[in-house]
Each structure stands twice: as C-alpha cells, then as structure tokens.
C-alpha cells in the first residue's frame, strides 16, 4: 500500500541513485567538483525532490504531472552528465554504464507513473 511518496518505487530508486552519485562526485578531479560535480549533485537530487513535491500535489493532475515531468527531465540531464564523466575519463566506464541504465529505467518508470497516475 502506498501511504507516502517514500513508498513509491520511483522515489526509492531516485533517492538511492542520488546518494550514490553524491558519494562518487568526491572522486572527480578537484577542478571538476565545482563544475560537473555541482551539476551531478543538483540533477541527482532534483529527481527524488520533484517526486516528493508532486506527490503532495497529486490531487491536482496538472501539478502532479508537472513535477513528474521535471523528475524525468532530471533523469535525462543525469544521462548527459554521467556520459561526460565517462567520456572525460573521470569515472570508470562500467560504473557509468550501470548508472546510465538505471537512470534510463527510472525515467521510464516515472513516465509510466505519470501516464497511469490515477491507477496508483
């Protein structure tokens, strides 16, 4: 049974990814921690935050979907930043590929929630 946003699988996965990404940002070269690192931290935190805020407004279809759309956008943004970290050889390729796959799946799950929200 879903009693709060914390019970949503999309929230749990996005939160777990945000924690993982934020820990790994410290492994970026010093000169990238304030640039790419900042982008990674903000975008990773945006996904679960928008899910939580949208859940509070779920009675209002447009508001709920707007927040889920923002969360999907943050997942897409993460794909760009993770690809940069990989292609600039800041993070290991296997680690990045795993993150990219998880964000791709997460974006799809959030899209499904957005499109079927009345059934949840």
By CATH reckoning, the class would read Mainly Alpha
CATH homology-level superfamily: 23S rRNA-intervening sequence
Task: Fill in the CATH topology.
Answer: de novo design (two linked rop proteins)
Strand content: under 5%
Q: What's the end-to-end separation, in Å? A: 9 Å
Total number of helical segments?
A: 5
The amount of helix comes to over 70%
Mean of pLDDT: 95
CATH architecture: Up-down Bundle
Q: What kind of assembly state do the chains in view correspond to? A: single chain
Radius of gyration: 15 Å
Query: What's the number of domains?
Result: 1
- Count the E strands: 0
Q: What pattern of helices and strands is seen along the backbone?
A: HHHHH
SSE class: mainly alpha
- Main pleated-sheet profile: none
- The geometry reads as elongated
Unreliably modeled segments: none
Task: Give an account of the 3D structure.
With 120 residues, this protein is mainly alpha-helical. It has one domain (8-21, 32-115): de novo design (two linked rop proteins) (Up-down Bundle). It is built from five helices and no strands. The protein has helices spanning 9-25, 30-33, 36-56, 61-87, 93-115. The mean pLDDT is 95.
Helices and strands, with pairings:
Blueprint: H1 9-25, H2 30-33, H3 36-56, H4 61-87, H5 93-115
Helix pairs in contact: 1-3, 1-5, 3-4, 4-5
List the main descriptive attributes of the protein structure presented here:
120 residues; mainly alpha; de novo design (two linked rop proteins); 5 helices; 0% strand
């Amino acid at each position: 049974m879903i009693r709060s946003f914390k019970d949503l699988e999309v929230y749990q996965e996005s939160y777990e990814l945000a924690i993982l990404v934020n820990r790994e940002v410290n492994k970026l070269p010093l000169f990238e921690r304030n640039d790419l690192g900042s982008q990674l931290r903000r975008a990773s935190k945006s996904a679960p935050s928008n899910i939580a805020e949208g859940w509070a407004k779920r009675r209002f279809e447009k508001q709920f979907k707007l927040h889920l759309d923002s969360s999907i956008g943050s997942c897409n943004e993460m794909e760009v930043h993770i690809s940069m970290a990989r292609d600039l050889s800041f993070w290991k390729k296997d680690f990045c590929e795993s993150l990219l796959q998880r964000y791709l799946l997460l974006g799809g799950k959030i899209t499904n929630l957005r499109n079927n929200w009345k059934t949840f």
